[in-house]
Amino acid sequence: MIPAAFDYIRATSAEEALAALTEHGDDAKLMAGGQSLIPLMRYRLVTPGVVVDIGNLDGDLRGISVNGDTVRIGALTRHTELEHSAELEATCPLLNHVASLVGDPAVRHRGTLGGSLAHADPASDLPAAVLALGATLVARGPGGEREIAASDFFTGFLESVLAPDEMLTEVRVPVTADGWNYQKFNRRAQDWAIVGVAVCRGGRGVSLVNMGPTPMRASAVEEAVAGGATAAEAAAHAADETDPPNDLNGDADYRSHLARVLTRRALEAAGFA
Question: How many CB atoms are closer than 10 A to CB 157?
């Protein structure tokens, strides 16, 4: 299908992009790599009147740096940069690995970390990673910057706490080189996960892919782990308080079973007893 007509603005700075969002409000959409927005526009699931392209912005919106025990990643850092970053492999290999599983090389060369998070798709890989890591997301708007815990960021299907006049600028994750794992079950290598599980032992974080309307923490599993449960005992709670979808890839019962199996594998691989 062909998208509905829209105006196009190629922003030359973050300030210009924010000014356009303020001027056009809900009628404007940011586009970084376009890997999520353009398909939605082609199917007319979203029909923005104005597309603000921030894909060519550089500066502090792009790149990876380490400051003490925190890894800072610019929101416009592309998946392929995450995948091949030696610095990230040494300090936060969970993100390094998960980025390598996103789509195919063409998608990874255009898609951005901030775009994936702002899209807030419950079937996406990277939101689960930042949840398990206990990341902090930084948003910038007319009132300045604010920090948002990843656990507070996702509010509904394809919805987040970002205001219409805000944009993600960076993601901060703790240095976590050991005790992590990501399990993803899908039909083919480049497909969305039918179910996925991300585990970070350092923060005792466990998160789920495609087990509800939002990317979500597996709180019952985390509580069981904190209470001294074994990997098998904790994994038995993986589907607690979830709302998995029913679709052609599997019904809710099938996904609940997968969540328990994959969570046990991920916990064991991450070093939980």
Answer: 12
Does the structure show a pLDDT above 80 at 90? Answer: yes
Query: What distance in Å separates the CA atoms of residue 216 and residue 209, rounded to the nearest whole number?
Result: 7
Tokens 């991300």 found at: 198
pLDDT at 203 over 80: no
For residue 12, give the nearest of 67, 45, 55 by alpha carbon. Answer: 55
Say if residues 118 and 162 touch (Cβ distance below 8 Å).
Answer: yes
Q: Which domains does the chain have, with CATH numbers?
A: 7-53 (3.30.43.10), 59-174 (3.30.465.10), 181-269 (3.30.390.50)
Residues whose CB falls within 8 Å of the CB of residue 84, separated by 6 or more in sequence, listed in order: none
Which tokens is 43 given? Answer: 């199917």
Query: If we measure between CA atoms, which residue out of 191, 189, 226, 186 comes closest to residue 206?
Result: 226
